[in-house]
Structures are given as structure tokens and as C-alpha cells.
Amino acid sequence: MDSFFEFFSFSDPNIRYVVIGSLLLTSSSAIVGTFTFLKKKALVGDAVAHAVLPGVCLSFILSGEKSPIILIIGAFLTGWLSLVLIDIITAKSKLKEDTAIGLILSVFFGIGIFMLTIIQKSGNASQTGLDQFLFGKAASLVGFDLIVFAVIAVILIVSVWLFFKELTLLAFDEEFAVTLGLPVRAIELLLTTLTVLAVVVGIQAVGVVLMAAMLITPAAAARFWTHNITTMIWLAAIFGSLSGLAGAYISYIAPSMPTGPWIVVVISTIAFISFFLAPGRGILYRVKTQRRIKKQINDENILKALYHLGEEGKKFYEKRTLQEILSKRKFEPQALKSGLKRLRSDGYLKNENGYWSFTRAGKRKGQRTVKLHRLWELYLTQYLRIAPDHVHDDADTIEHILTPELEARLEKLLNYPKVDPHQSEIPYG
Amino acid sequence: MTNDKTIINQVHHVENPVLEVHDLTVSYDKKPVLWDVDLTLPYGKLIGIVGPNGAGKSTLIKSVMGLTPNSSGYVKLFDQSLREARGKISYVPQRESVDWDFPASVLDVVLMGRYGKLGLFRRPRKADKDIAMDSLRKVGMEAYEKRQISQLSGGQQQRVFLARALAQQADLYFMDEPFAGVDAATEKAIISLLREMSAKGKTVIVVHHDLQSVTQYFDWVILLNMRLVASGPVEKVFTTELLQETYGGKLTLLSDVGDLIRQQQFPNREKTPDSKSG
Ligand SMILES: Nc1ncnc2c1ncn2[C@@H]1O[C@H](COP(=O)(O)OP(=O)(O)O)[C@@H](O)[C@H]1O
Ligand SMILES: [Mg+2]
Predict the structure, then answer these.
(1) What is the residue-averaged pLDDT of chain A?
(2) Does the C-beta of B51 come closer than 6 Å to ligand 1?
(3) Which one of A41, A214, B119, B265 has the fewest CB atoms closer than 10 angstroms to its CB?
């Protein structure tokens, strides 16, 4: 626990550097990754992430040292080369893009691993810290290295800010961007360059193996929470930063531990939480919505059954037994019971000594459901020419969905009909 | 038509055309799908492009907009090259051409129509927003300004695309099936909007599916089926005979030759020193 407070007080300048470094690396790759994600280029990000490894190794072999600038140049070159090759293969051969990506990814990564083995055999890999490129190590970012990577991270963020409008349009509708006369090729090139650079800086924190996750996962998690692209970028950056912070902390308390896996575990956890809990798109919300809809359908069916009972002899406010309701429609006993209870507390039904009857609001609601059912049956037979004996089941679903707006349109279209295809009266309120 | 210059094979040509398509052949993956289209279109008309599914209607307007990679022949708009005319032309793609589950609001999308005029780096300003809102009003979507585009119905998506094009304030519009998925009342509203535009001198070219309404909607019609069947004033070319030629079955011979060209990696046209592309 001591180390926890020590770390998060940020009083030690070394800690401060590591924290700033990890935050910049993870947030900048998350921001660029938002566009990679929206352009549906996640796989491409993966390919680049793996393709930088041979570049890094080659620069090391050739220069004999781990100077960040030389390593970045090497990584940049092979990262770029991989994208160019994917484009050429897709354009000139019969292979589809995903096959080309898989091919390039494994070939480049294989060559990279091969080179890494050679370097490790030569005995000075750990001393140079090159193996950290595999799984990342935020804490190794100090001094000049930190400055270099921080500068690149800032360049990434500023570029996205400058070209925000163009990048967004390209992600949504590239053809339209062409017709506007925008320099689409150049902007594509820019995004590719930014992606490669984001990968190059990101691997400092998470390593080659897990970099693709760092690029895409923050954006994927952010998408669950918002429909606004600006908010989405901010959220992706925040999610990325949180995981970066976690990585830096692990790096601090357990210096021998690689940070990459920890960072990715944290960002994946955030993604999972988003997947389950986010309002609107999250699973939990959807399950809840479905439950609510199921209840609504059940309750409206009860009101409909009571209305049907009332139609016989126009005695809508009669008291009814459970048996009577069940005679109109088969309900699960449990669903009927809980539905009746809900309808009473919502003020649609009254219960006296076990007998159930409509309130005014209840009758109105039951009547509307019946009306929508019959209008829809009529619509299906008249406009879709479906036989009258085939329309009931469809109408049974649609009656619960129609909005007042659609109801009005339907009434007008059918010219306020009096009866449905089965000659039952269509009730108006 | 007083400005008819010549009529060649049912293709009516005009002097001083707003659009000239010269000997255009378009291929996908080496296979030509549109052969030797030659046409000229007059200013200020409402023009329909009609033909069966797969006839190359979308391909024709995409090619004119410079969206197909492989075309030969050339296109002139306002007697200028495509590049010079960009600022004056606008394209409404088929609704299905984009993924509507994108984090953007209706207003965001309509504002994209202003991006060409804005240029790099500059953000939309108040004037652009006013123009975008005005365009939304014209298509009856002003109440949906803040709505997420993923929540729109098909007809509403179509109207948003239309508003985006209006926001471009162009002089020549290309619209790919703007009535697909739109209800009858909206279709009427849109067509009277297009009429209004053409009355103001704008030229509107519309890919259209419903033969019933062609004579009622359009001044000029282009009949297409892998090649140009006819182009001219509606009353002259929208005839039973020409329609039969347009819709009378697939041109299997033409299609087979296209396949052959692809399989043999044949150039669909020999390169001549002066041939320009798209
Ligand atoms: N991107 C594409 N790649 C390959 N073939 C295409 C592509 N787009 C269209 N085609 C083919 O070109 C022909 C014309 O298509 P299109 O212009 O969309 O027809 P229309 O709009 O008249 O229905 C069709 O045979 C279609 O299959
Ligand atoms: Mg089409």
C-alpha cells in the first residue's frame, strides 16, 4: 500500500516522467485508433503492429545500439512497407484484403522474431532492452527516449485535431469526400502515417504483441457510451490513459514485470464493462429493454382480453374473474398475476374481492390496443393483399409497437374504417 | 427542343451542354459494364436516368463524378474538366452506400456538404450552420437536427443525404435513387423541391426506378441498359418501343464479351496517344 501512495502522489520526478510518458503513449494511440476503428480498419492496425518488429530489429542490428530515433525509423519503414504490400496484393491478385493482411502480418512478424532470436543469441538483447519491444515496458522510458516519444505523441494528437473534419468525413463517406474535391489520397496517407506512428510509440508501453489491442480497444469501448464522435475520442483517450496509468504503476512496483499485458488487461476490462453496462448499446440495457417490452406486451394483452370481454354486451366496466380473462387468452398464470398487479398499481385496473375491472384509463388503453390490432389487419389485407385468415399473428405483435404518429397515419390512409377484415368493430376513443 | 443539334441513334444532342459524356466505357475489375456512352444534356432540366437493375445507372453517375477507377473516354461539365467543375456539382449517393451506425448527428452530416467550400483546417461557422439548417428545412427535417443518424428511418436518411447535397449549393446535382424507401407524400415534396431548383436554373439528374412517374417528373430522360439506348426530351424518347429495347432482357452477348475481356486480361480499348481518362 505504501508504494501505492508513493506512486500516486507523483512526488518522485522519475515517477512523474513515467506517468506522463505512459499517458501520452496510450492516449495518443487511442485517439488515432478511434479513426482506425471507425474506418473498420482494425485488422490493418494489427498488421502494422506486428510489422514494425523486423524494422526495430534491423535498425538495432545495423546500428548496434538502441537509439530511439533509429529504432523509430526502422519501425516506421517496415510498418509502412507492410501497408503498401497489403494494398498491392489486394489490388493485383485475387486475394481478398483480409487474406493479404493475415499473410503480411505473419510473414513480417516471423521475420521479426527470427531477427530477435539472432540478437538474443548474440547476448546483448536484455542489456539493450530490445526484448522490451515484445511486451513493452513503460518504466524504461526515461530521459531522451521519453522526450522523443512524447513529441511524437503530441504530433499525433495535434494532427488529429487539425484534420478532425476531414478524418471524420473519410471515415463516414469516403466517396462523398472525393466528390467534394478534398485531397482524399493525401488524407488517407496521413491517417496511415498516423497509424504507423501511433503503433511505433504505443509499442513502448505495451509491446508489439499487444499493440493492436491498444489501438482499437479504447475506441471500441468508447463507442458503447456515446453517439458523438468528439465525446468518443475523449473517452477513448481517457480509457487509454487509465490503462496506461495502471501499466506505469505495475512497472514501478514490479520492475521486472512487462507492462503490456497489464495495460491490455485493464483496457479489456473497461471494454467488457462497457459491453455489459453501457446505456443504449450495452448488453444489460438491452436485456432490460427486452424485459420491459415483454412486460408491456403482456400487460396490454391483459387489457385487450378485458376489452374483448367488455365488447360482449358493451359492459366494459363489469367485474371479471381470472377464469373469464383466461377464457379470452391463454396467459401463463405467473405472468397474468404479476401483470394484473402492475396494472392495478399503474391505475389501469381495480380489484375488489378478487374481481378485476377497468378504470377509465384502463379501458382507453385496452381499446387502443384493440383498435391498432384491427387497423393493422385491415392494412395487411388491403395494402399487402394478405388473406384475412393470415393477418392475426402479425397484428398481435404490431399492435404493441405502433406509435401515435403511425396510428394517425394508418387511420388516415385507411380513411377511418368502421370494421376490420373479420367484421369486428374498430373502436375510436 | 429548340436547341437540338443532332439526333444520333435516338440520342438527342444539344449545343452548349451542361454535361458532355464522350465515348465513356466503364469497367469493374476489367469487365466493362457500361459501353461507349455518348451524350450531352441541356441546362436547367430535371433529368431522369431509367433502366433495369444492373443497367449501369449508378455506374454512369459515379463515373461522371470520378468515383470509378477504370473508365475511358472523357466527361466535361460546364465545358470544364471534372476537377475544375467540382465546386459546382453535387452527388447524392445511394443510401446503402454508407454505414449509418456512425457517431454523428443529422446536422453533422448535413454540414459535411459545406466541407468542400470550407477547405482544410477550417471548422464550419455560423453561416455554414445556417445554410445546413436551411437545407434541412427544405427537406422537412429541421426537427431532427440533433437526432443520431443511426436512429433515422430509411426515408429520413434519404432526406438527410438530400439536405447535405443542398448545403453544397451546387448548380448540377446527381442523385442516385433519392426516392428509394421514401413514402409517397415525401416523394411528392421532394419532386416539387427539385422542380423549384430546376426553375432556378439548376440541373438535376436523378436515377429513377418507377416507370409510372417518369413522364410526370422529368423533362428529359436517359434510357440505359449496359449501353445508352436513348437520351432526349421525355415526349420524344419515352416510347414503348425504346422502353422495350431498354428492358427487353439482358444483353447476354455484351455481358459475355465483358467476361471474356476480364478473363483474358484484355485492354478494353487500345491506348491512343491522345486518349484521356475520366
Ligand atoms: N464495385 C463494383 N465491382 C464490381 N462490379 C460492380 C460494382 N458495382 C457495380 N457492379 C456491376 O456493374 C453493373 C452495373 O451496376 P450498377 O451501376 O450498380 O447498376 P444500376 O445502378 O443500374 O442498378 C452490375 O452488373 C453490377 O453487378
Ligand atoms: Mg444503382
Answers:
(1) 87
(2) yes
(3) B265
Determine phi and psi for A413, rounding to 5 degrees: -60, -40
The separation between the first and the last C-alpha atoms of chain B, rounded to the nearest angstrom, is 29
Looking at the structure, do residues A46 and A149 belong to the same domain, yes or no? yes
User: Of all protein residues, whose CA lies closest to atom 5 belonging to ligand 1?
Assistant: B28
**B152 in contact with ligand 1, CB cutoff 6 A:** no
What's the structural domain count of chain A? 2
Q: Is residue A243 part of a domain?
A: no
Q: Closest approach of chain A CAs to the CA of B226, in angstroms?
A: 23
The answer to the question of residue A246 being in a domain is no
A105 touches chain B (CB under 8 A): no
Q: What is the mean pLDDT of residues B219-230?
A: 94
Give, in order, the Cα–Cα distances in Å from B13 to each of A1, A364, B39. 85, 65, 7
Closest protein CA for atom 6 of ligand 1: B28
Enumerate the residues of chain B whose CB falls inside 8 A of the CB of residue A226.
103
CATH of the domain at A38: 1.10.3470.10
Residue A166 CA from chain centroid, whole number = 22
pLDDT tens sequence across B24-77:
999 998 888 999 999 999 999 999 999 999 999 999 999 999 999 878 899 999
Contact list in A for residue B95 (CB cut-off 8 A) is none
A91 CA: distance to closest CA in chain B (Å): 10
User: For the segment A21-65, what is each residue's pLDDT rounded down to a tens digit?
Assistant: 888 889 999 999 999 999 988 888 889 989 998 998 898 888 877
Give the residue from A153, A179, A211 where a domain finishes.
A211
Find all residues with CB under 8 Å of B122, minimum gap 6, and list them. none
Residue B63 Cβ inside 6 Å of ligand 1? The answer reads no
Pairwise CB contact (< 8 Å): B65 & A228: no
What is the H or E stretch that residue B41 is in? strand B31-41
Count of A-B CB contacts under 8 Å? 73
| B178 C-alpha to ligand 1 centroid (Å) | 18
Q: Give this complex's ipTM.
A: 0.89
A191/A289 same-domain check? no
CB neighbourhood size of A212 (10 A): 25
Distance from CA of B102 to the nearest CA of A (A): 7
Q: Rounded CA gap, B7 and A63, in Å?
A: 73
Residue nearest to atom 17 of ligand 1 (CA): B56
Residue A6 belongs to some domain of the structure? no
Which B-chain residues 130-159 have CB contacts (< 8 A) with chain A?
148, 150
Q: Is B55 in the pocket of ligand 1 (CB under 6 A)?
A: yes
In a domain, A112, yes or no: yes
Which residues lie closer than 8 Å to B252 by C-beta, 6 or more apart? none
Cα–Cα distance, A348 to A367 (Å, whole number) = 12
Residue type for B88, please? K
User: Which residue range forms the structural domain that includes residue A129?
Assistant: 13-211
Question: Nearest-CA distance from B168 to chain A in Å?
Answer: 9
Please state, in angstroms and rounded to a whole number, the distance separating the CA atoms of residues B183 and B85: 33
- Same domain flag for A145 and A45: yes
Minimum CA distance residue for ligand 1 atom 3: B28
Place of cell 478524418: A167
- Locate the domains of chain B by residue range: 4-78+171-264, 98-170
Please provide the CATH number assigned to the domain covering B4-78+171-264: 3.40.50.300
Q: How confident is the model at residue B277 (pLDDT cuts 50, 70, 90)?
A: very low
